[in-house]
Amino acid sequence: MSRLIANAASALAPTCDYTTGCITCGDVAVPMSVTRLDDERGLALCSDDEGNSETVEIDLVAPVAPGDTLLVHAGTAIARLTEEASA
Amino acid sequence: MKYVDEFRDPALGEVLAGEILGLVEPGRHYKFMEVCGGHTHSIYKYGIDDLLPANVELVHGPGCPVCVIPMGRVDDGISLAHQPDVIFTCFGDMLRVPGSDGTLLDAKAEGADIRMVYSPLDALRIAKANPDRPVIFFAIGFETTAPSTALTLKRAKAEGVKNFFCMCNHVTIVPPLRALLDSPDLRLDGFIGPGHVSTVVGVRPFEFIPREYKKPISVAGFEPLDVLHAIHMILTQIKEGRCEVENQYARVVPYDGNPRALEVMSEVFELRPHFEWRGMGFISQSGLKLSEAYADMDAEIQYSVPGIRVADPKACQCGEVLKGVIKPWECKVFGSGCTPERPIGTCMVSSEGACAAYYNYGRFAREREVV
After folding, report:
1. Exposed site from A59, B227, B253, B331, fewest CB < 10 Å?
2. Is A78 on the interface with B (CB under 8 A)?
3. Structural domains in chain A, sorted by start
């Protein structure tokens, strides 16, 4: 019975969608733009082009400023993207 | 989207594909491994393999951290999740990975408090909101994800959070690559190197591949033009008789990586003497554990875990798939006993797994016809 419930839970659970990729488990990172800084805690509120926002660790790319584009993986900015670099 | 659209231009893709056609020698077979699960996903999502000449074969490497987790570690995680009062947190893909007696989702259905998080920071947030309960984060991933875990553990320590623990399953990319290159049953002509791992570790750690094994490698981004460009670069090296590390993803990857990330990792983690990889056995110095300074946050020290090695299911050939020895559709249970809805092996569970990529993008039917 418990296995039956588990299977039902499995069908309904909010797991990653394997058709679009899993940002946390794969070597995947998304460009996000800094919208607000929390200097005291070393965090930044960032948003992507689709309007999703996320609190991001910025320790690895500090200092950053609002408007900067960061490459974010699992809630942590791992690189900063620049216009020259993207050219 | 900025930094994305310009790398998805179909016209440029066709130009690159045409040039690739001109670089290959007819009658010679080229076998390249994309190390990273993210590349596997891009290749099938964008149909990159359809743009390649028939004699250029792409094989999939061990670059999906979920796919390489052995069953015994899943059992250990489930055992921690069943400890009294524990809130167990992990990334979404891990929930569906089968242990020897069910998945973390099964354990959740049986009453364990297991929550999916998108980042270690989310797990810390849960710990701060539940100060009376221990919160364990199941950390998994290569060097791309390890700094994120390290920073969160540092933050927890600095903020005096006493109820946050970590079961560390982080792995490193170089030891399994060396194990693959030492494997006699795998013959490769080059590597598409992992882009975001390299953002952290840099390009330098891959220098041993051309130096010691005489294989070219191009560290690549994840957009379709990135992957095509990397293949173009490797073929050009072969044609010109060169063999070196090249950085296709230079817009993001510095040659020496991110020194701050490496510094944080070395403070929080230390290498395990050996770590078990699914289908590949134990590989020396390929896994990370928490350093002594963080032992009080190490769930494996603070709680007892069974730590029993569990053999992979007999029908499952994830090991051969992970080493690129067989294609996913050549596995006995692919698409029949093992599907994304009911996976037997980890390669079918994870979104980045080679089997899931083949299954979801219709490679099952097409490859069968070719055979």
Report:
1. A59
2. yes
3. 20-86 (2.30.30.140)
Each residue's pLDDT tens digit, B97-151: 888 889 999 999 999 999 999 899 999 999 999 999 999 999 999 999 999 999 9
Q: Are B199 and A76 an interchain contact pair (Cβ–Cβ within 8 Å)? A: no
Exposure class string for B265-293: b at 16+ Cβ within 10 A, else e: beebbebbeebbbbbbeebeebbbbbbee
- Does residue B356 sit in the same domain as residue B344? yes
Residue A14 token pair? 């909010």
B251 touches chain A (CB under 8 A): yes
What is the number of CB-based contacts under 8 A between chain A and chain B? 183
**Probe site for chain B from A2, A10, A22, A55 (most B CB atoms < 10 A):** A22
If asked whether residues B328 and B306 sit together in one domain, one would say: no
- The rounded distance, in Å, linking the Cα atoms of B317 and B258 is 36
Assess whether pLDDT exceeds 80 at residue B345: no
Q: Would an 8 Å CB–CB cutoff place B346 in contact with chain A?
A: no
Tell me which residue in A3, A22, A85 faces B352 most closely, judged by beta carbons: A22
CA pair distance B316, B330, nearest whole angstrom: 11
**B368 in a domain, yes or no?**
no
Domain limits for position B325? 318-361
For B16-52, write each residue's pLDDT tens digit.
Answer: 999 999 999 999 999 999 988 888 888 888 989 899 9
- The model's pLDDT over A7-33, given as tens digits with 9 standing for 90+, comes to 333 333 333 443 444 544 556 788 999
Tokens read off for B185: 């049953």
Domain contains B185: yes
Residue B36: give its domain's CATH number: 3.40.50.11740
Co-location of B258 and B349 in the same domain: no
Query: Residue A25: which of B121, B141, B250 has the nearest Cβ?
Result: B141
